[in-house]
Amino acid sequence: MGQSAQYEQTIALPLEFSGVGLHSGAPVIMRLLPAPAGSGIVFRRTDLDNFEIAATGRNVAKVSYATSLMRQGVLISTTEHLLSALIGMGVDNVIVELDNLELPILDGSALPFVDAFRNGGIRTQRRRREVIRVLKPIEVREGDKFIGVYPGSGYNICYAIDFPAPIGKQDVCVDLAAETYGTTIAPARTFGYKADEQRLRDMGLIRGAGPENAIILGKHGPMNGSLRFADEYVRHKVLDLIGDLALAGRRIEGRVVAERAGHAMHTAMVSRLLKDRSAWELAWVNVGDAADEARMAPPMRGGSMREAAVLGL
User: Fold this and answer.
1) 212 with 225: CB under 8 angstroms?
2) How many CB atoms lie within 10 A of CB 237?
3) CA-based torsion, 165, 166, 172, 178: positive or negative
4) Which residues of the chain have pLDDT under 70?
5) What is the pLDDT of residue 310?
6) Is residue 155 a contact partner of residue 176, using CB atoms and an 8 Å limit?
7) 303 φ/ψ sector (left φ>0, alpha ψ -120 to 50, else beta)
8) Residue 94, strand partner residues
């Protein structure tokens, strides 16, 4: 982790993306704008008088096949890929302008965002970066589904999945502190089974899905080209998890383990973690020692009023 990890960052230049929403199929233009230090990630609906919704756990709305945010009846849908890219690339502060309700799916991964950040540049700001340091285990279980967060240095994620053929079982562990997000996680695309297509469309979902923005699975494997990784499916689940956990308001310092989880469990973990004020503390990132760990930022402790404000509680 470089020296810039100690300080918050924003994008250096405005960035623009256009496309269709994965589930709505609606055309959308999205602009990312640099934002002041300490402002976090804020979505802005330009088609609704610039109504703003902060990317925080208290604004989580519908969660099933995608993660959505809502405030005062205004919706922002399918936020996970962009939020994942922002956290994965170390962008703390940005304004996200949209002229429709759903973010563009682009190629179904976070790679277009990562490439744009690299090409446009990321600017270091003068505010010390804080992380959510996990102090004790927190777990969420639902049948054979599970997610847990545990104390630990860095930001480590282990994910296991078990899907019907041709996917089967896959697992992977990643360390976000190693700065490999852009090459190992961001390119992994969303996926779905061809046999489920009509059922999902009848539910009003995946109306923007196609071979250009998703891995479409037949009985024997992908129907629309080769995989980017042999374990691309589980890597995409890690991508989604990083984006959903971004709704905690800060990058997490700790170890995350998930088995057969999904958006609903990811966001349930955010809620469970933030509600247990003894389970975490805000900490400054400190790269001055070999362990590259975080140093507590006094006088904050889990449960302070300032923590509640910045984390959207």
Assistant:
1) no
2) 27
3) negative
4) 1-4, 286-313
5) 35
6) yes
7) left
8) 34, 41
pLDDT tens digits, one per residue of 183-231: 999 999 999 999 999 999 999 999 999 999 999 999 999 999 999 999 9
CATH superfamily label, 3-310: lpxc deacetylase, domain 2 (3.30.1700.10)
Annotated active-site residue 266? The verdict is no
Q: How many CA atoms lie within 13 A of 41 on its CB side?
A: 28
DSSP labels, 174-208: EEGGGS-HHHHTTTPPPEEEGGGHHHHHHTT--TT
Residue 287: predicted pLDDT: 59
φ and ψ of 193, to 5 deg: -90, 135
* Sign of CA pseudo-dihedral 116, 236, 103, 83: negative
Quick check: 239 and 185 in contact, CB under 8 A? yes
Domain boundaries, the chain: 3-310
The tally of CA atoms less than 13 A away on the side-chain side of residue 195 is 7
Distance in angstroms (rounded) separating the CA atoms of residues 262 and 226: 24
CB 177 within 8 A of CB 276: no
- Report the alpha-carbon distance of residue 23 to residue 201 in Å, rounded: 9
Angle formed at CA 270 by CA 266 and CA 276, multiple of 5 degrees: 140
Composition of the chain by helix, strand, coil, percent to 5: 25, 35, 35
Answer whether 107's CB lies under 8 Å from 208's CB: no
Tell me which DSSP letter residue 136 carries.
S
